[in-house]
Amino acid sequence: MATSTGSAELDRMVERLGSTSDPKRRYEYVLWLAKKLKPMPAEEQTEDRKVKGCVSQVFVSGSLDQGVMHWQGDSDALITKGLLALLIQGLEGLTPAEVQAVDPVFISATGLHASLTPSRANGFLNIFRMMQSQAQTLEG
Predict the structure, then answer these.
(1) Kind and range of the H or E element at 24?
(2) Active site (catalytic) residues
(3) Residue 3 contacts by C-beta under 8 Å, 6 or more apart in sequence?
(4) Where does 8-139 sit in CATH, by number?
(5) 3 state SS of 9
(6) In the beta sheet, which residues pair with residue 59?
(7) Which of 54, 138, 126, 72 minimizes the C-alpha distance to 99?
(8) Element containing residue 79 per DSSP (H, E)
């Protein structure tokens, strides 16, 4: 895959997902990512961190430390949590400008869109857009 997101880690995960022709394997990878994601403390799951437009409950929070972004998040749905984990891992350590520069075209390069329901695919994009928005606010 020639898609470059500007994040070596995100590129690696996109390549791994995109090179897998078996949708079941893609799901297994997403579920594995979900299991690795540290839970977000309940008291930090506030309305301002809730991703709008997701069927499941999704929370994401970005913070800026020494010029780079750090993320945490959680979801009540395992697949969504895996998609969130993919974004958190992929956007971790980037500057706010780098996060904002990532083109959402990488989502189709994962091949996940073919096996995600339209609402889940839309939720994935909404999570990504919220992360970009938080990065833009922190850069401000």
Answers:
(1) helix 23-36
(2) 54
(3) 11, 14, 18, 105, 106, 109
(4) 3.90.1010.10
(5) helix
(6) 50, 74
(7) 138
(8) helix 78-91
Confidence of residue 45 (pLDDT cuts 50, 70, 90): very high
Q: Which two tokens stand for residue 65?
A: 């430390």
Q: 15 to each of 37, 65, 117, 123, how far by Cα in Å?
A: 20, 28, 21, 21
Beta bridge partners of 62: 71
Mean pLDDT on 93-113: 93
Q: What is the pTM of this model?
A: 0.94
Structure tokens at 132: 């970009």
Q: Tokens for 67?
A: 């010029």
Q: Where are the domains of the chain?
A: 8-139
| Tokens read off for 116 | 């995600």
Which residue is associated with the tokens 């990504």? 128
The overall average pLDDT reported for the chain is 93
